[in-house]
Amino acid sequence: MDIKFTKGIQSPDDPLKFIMSDESVDRMGDVILAKGWDLTDFNKNPIALWGHDSQTPIGTWDNVKVEGKALTGTLTLAKQG
User: Fold this and answer.
1) Could you tell me if residue 1 is inside a domain?
2) How far is it, in rounded angstroms, from Cα 20 to Cα 67?
3) Are 68 and 59 in contact (CB under 8 A)?
4) Backbone angles phi, psi at 61, to 5 degrees
5) Residue 62 in contact with residue 45, Cβ under 8 Å?
6) pLDDT at position 23
7) Which among 14, 26, 9, 29 is positioned nearest to 74, based on CA atoms?
8) Could you please report the per-residue DSSP string of 29-47?
9) Cα R_g (the chain), whole angstroms
């Protein structure tokens, strides 16, 4: 698959905040409860991947935390190059 990238500009005044996961039932019928998340190892190297592909990192996650029943984080895009 050819991957095409588009140049983007990220403003510190408009952070890219995401719901990374929640307690919704996934396509396999599984649910991960918020109280079960242990972010210790993830926070040591919070790399953001494109489509879960370790060959295409796109940035890093900041301020990853549980809010209610959702795992949220702010994406900082990698600099070009």
Assistant:
1) no
2) 11
3) no
4) -100, 135
5) no
6) 96
7) 14
8) S----GGG---HHHHHS-E
9) 14
4 is a domain residue: no
Sheet holding 53-67: strands in order across? 16-22, 70-77, 53-67, 47-50
Residue listed under structure tokens 């940035």: 59
Percent of the chain with pLDDT strictly greater than 70: 88
Which pLDDT belongs to residue 13?
74
* Listed residue (56, 62, 58) closest to 74, CA to CA: 62
The pLDDT-based confidence of 45 (bands split at 50, 70, 90) is very high
For 59, the domain range is: 16-77
Q: Are 24 and 32 a contacting pair, CB within 8 Å? A: no
**Is residue 66 in a domain?**
yes
Residue 20 falls within a domain, yes or no?
Answer: yes
What average pLDDT does the chain have? 88
Task: Work out how many domains the chain is built from and give that number.
Answer: 1
